[in-house]
Amino acid sequence: MLTLHHLNFSRSTRVLWLLEELGLNYDLKTYERDEHFRAPAALANVHPLGKAPILVDDDLVLAESAAILRYLEQKYGDGRLVPAPGTPDRAIHDEWLDYVESSAALPVMLTLLGTMTGGLSQGLAGFTAPELRKTLSYIADGVRGRTYLLGDRLTLADIQMSYLLDALRKAGQLDEHPDILSYLGRLEATQGLRKAIEVGGPMSPPARS
């Protein structure tokens, strides 16, 4: 039996989405953030990182969203959500999949932390703002005129992208990026993501007033 250890307002919604998209049976263990918006200590009893998502499949205990998405698709997905191996489309797909939590994540998370903590220092803000603009421009170019990142086909890369974009929208960072907002709307319209949010709650917390 697959077990997903899921933290509210976290990246683990991505894994919930994939589980629902593939129609897999799973057991859901839910955790709540503490008063400091941190993961509870109980998650460290499941995996040393103490974060979510954590997937358990028999003797395998796996963390990190991209690794979990790849594992589930390779074992249970039959190629439904990735292009064929060895093709240019697969290379581009994998670039997007890894981009989300590598190049894109740093300016996005710094921006979100600044929003949560009353603002970044002048020096850090001076670095982050142009990096975020470049990131959002790159994503907007990638989805403009397409349903999903690789055209009309939903892939793991789209599932991976969803969390950062939802958080940015709630922080007011997508107001000038209609192509990204439209793309995020299409992701939210998928049956898998709708079910994941129904089961596990919103991907990110409500915007602060």
TrEMBL record:
Highest taxon in the source lineage: Bacteria
Family matches, as CDD domains: GST_N_GTT1_like
Coiled coil: none
Domain GST N-terminal: 1-80
PROSITE patterns reported in the protein's UniProt record: GST_CTER (PS50405), GST_NTER (PS50404)
Chain ranges of the GST C-terminal domain: 86-206
InterPro entries: Glutathione-S-Trfase_C-like (IPR010987), Glutathione-S-Trfase_C_sf (IPR036282), Glutathione_S-Trfase (IPR040079), Glutathione_S-Trfase_N (IPR004045), GST_C (IPR004046), Thioredoxin-like_sf (IPR036249)
PANTHER family for the chain: GLUTATHIONE S-TRANSFERASE 1, GLUTATHIONE S-TRANSFERASE-RELATED
Identification of the protein by name: Glutathione S-transferase
